[in-house]
Design brief:
binds (2Z)-2-iminopentanedioic acid; globular; about 450 residues; Rossmann fold; about 50% helix; 7-stranded mixed beta sheet; binds NADPH dihydro-nicotinamide-adenine-dinucleotide phosphate; 5-stranded mixed beta sheet; alpha/beta
Length: about 450
């Protein structure tokens, strides 16, 4: 583990002591701190005002009971969270995750990442995240609806278009946003479109929001390769996950002439050397909400299902981890590097362990951290808020072009910042420092609040 700048050591120790057991949160903070040494050295005003310590303490953390009744008439109990982390640049903005692994440490790591990601987009959005340990797998639509209604019956008092604007994340897609918005509208008696993003296209949603995270990740890969005088065309691409981010990343890779040869879910992965049939993946994962294992069973054509291994064993030119945190370990990184992988871009939040991320940088791969590479989703959420505020709706081509320009802007900001702070070509340093300075400067302007 690289040493931290001496001024950051006590700040990090304080974070660990104040948030015991929240290992993912500690990991996310440490990862940012490892980039901030040159910033602290150049700008003593950040240390003098304790801006970094304040950034690590959420402005507000809400934990609440979510009781609901299942189809058998039994009362079920879950825990709901919303961490309103930082509002220096705009209303808290970030998704809701429904997954059994959700606890405060996960929500805080995601909320912390979101501050810097949202800042990097250059848009007026602060950072927040929420969710529940509710597991949508195997639940009926009616159960998901009752859960969402109960969740919103508490959450509604904390959110608002100028206050806090949730959206989707793992386990929360268009269906859940519909139930959540319906309940918010009913309780408040307000058609406040800008209170949630990821809405349906007929009721305030934005074109391209569904596709935006995956598309944005691939736009970022395009920019990195372009800067190196290369392109995605003809590249073999491996994508972990087969949810929202993975599927639309795969769609854009295909459009740009690359071949996606493997995708996965939490049960295992499928490989098809000639290229994955994306329509079948969409049908299995989005329509039927079934297991990716079905792909190999239904497809034939030499498609293989592998369980118990790692998808990163499949040799590729480009790797896009789009499933979950810490899914790509140091040993996976070594395998990818040995097999000649040239580009890794994180569609998921913090999918590479710290050792894996370091290995990619040391080996000289093009490595894009999640807070830069997956920022297209939240950026398009900000475009949705913009359309809601002006009671307008834009077409697909225009919105996609805006996304493309935003991703190019993030890419260029990463490189310029990395250059300025002495780490040329390092997207991790560029993203962390670029994201940090914009928030920190706003916090300095506001005084001690
Ligand atoms: P989805 O719920 O749509 O899909 C998640 C996918 O990842 C599923 O295929 C799921 O498999 C798989 N997965 C989850 N856990 C594991 C695991 N432990 N091992 C292997 N596969 C796993 O979520 P999203 O696609 O929306 O989110 C994926 C990642 O992208 C998350 O890190 C999220 O925070 C991040 N992200 C999402 C954004 C968005 O706009 N949605 C924006 C930016 C980042 P299974 O079906 O078996 O559960
Ligand atoms: O991690 C993320 O950036 C998201 N889940 C999207 C957040 C949003 O508000 O669109």
């Amino acid at each position: 583990m690289p040493a931290l700048h001496e001024q950051l050591i006590p700040v990090f120790e304080e974070v660990v002591n104040r948030n015991p057991g929240e290992t993912e949160f500690h990991q996310a903070v440490r990862e940012v701190f490892e980039s901030l040494g040159p910033v602290v050295a150049k700008h003593p005003e950040y240390a003098q005002s304790s801006v970094i310590g304040r950034l690590c303490e959420p402005e507000r953390q809400i934990i609440f009971r979510v009781p609901w009744v299942d189809d058998a008439g039994q009362v079920q109990l879950n825990r709901g969270f919303r961490v309103e982390f930082n509002s220096a640049l705009g209303p808290y903005k970030g998704g809701l995750r429904f997954h059994p692994s959700v606890y405060l440490g996960i929500v805080k790591f995601l909320g912390f990442e979101q501050i810097f990601k949202n800042s990097l987009t250059g848009m007026p959005i602060g950072g927040g995240k929420g969710g529940s340990d509710f597991d949508p797998k195997g639940k009926s639509d009616a159960e998901v609806m009752r859960f969402c209604q109960s969740f919103m019956t508490e959450l509604y008092r904390h959110i608002g278009e100028h206050t806090d604007v949730p959206a989707g994340d793992t386990g929360v897609g268009a269906r859940e946003i519909g139930y959540l918005f319906g309940q918010y509208k009913r309780i408040t008696n307000r058609y406040e479109s800008g209170v949630l993003t990821g809405k349906g296209l007929t009721w305030g949603g934005s074109q391209v929001r569904t596709e935006a995270t995956g598309y944005g990740t691939v736009f970022f890969v395009h920019e990195m390769l372009h800067a190196a005088g290369e392109s995605i065309e003809g590249r073999r691409v491996v994508i972990s996950g087969s949810g929202n981010v993975a599927i639309y990343a795969a769609e854009k890779v295909r459009e740009l002439g690359g071949t996606v040869i493997a995708v996965s879910d939490s049960g295992g992965y499928v490989v098809e050397e000639g290229g994955i049939d994306l329509e079948l993946v969409k049908d299995i994962k989005l329509s039927r909400r079934a297991r990716i294992e079905k792909y190999a069973q239904e497809r034939g054509n030499g498609a293989r299902y592998v369980t118990g291994g790692s998808i990163w064993e499949v040799p590729c030119d480009v790797a896009l981890p789009c499933a979950t945190q810490n899914e790509l370990t140091a040993s996976d990184a070594a395998t990818l590097i040995r097999n000649g992988c040239k580009v890794v871009a994180e569609g998921a939040n913090m999918p590479s362990t710290p050792d894996a991320a370091r290995a990619f940088q040391e080996a000289g791969l093009l490595f894009a951290p999640g807070k830069a590479a997956n920022a297209g989703g939240v950026a398009t959420s900000a475009l949705e808020m913009q359309q809601n505020a002006s009671r307008d709706s834009w077409n697909f081509a225009y919105t996609e072009e805006r996304l493309r320009i935003i991703m190019r802007g993030i890419h260029d900001r990463c490189l310029t910042t990395a250059d300025e702070y002495g780490s040329p070509g390092n997207y991790v340093a560029g993203a962390n420092i670029g994201g940090f300075t914009r928030v920190a400067d706003a916090m300095l302007a506001f005084g001690v609040v």
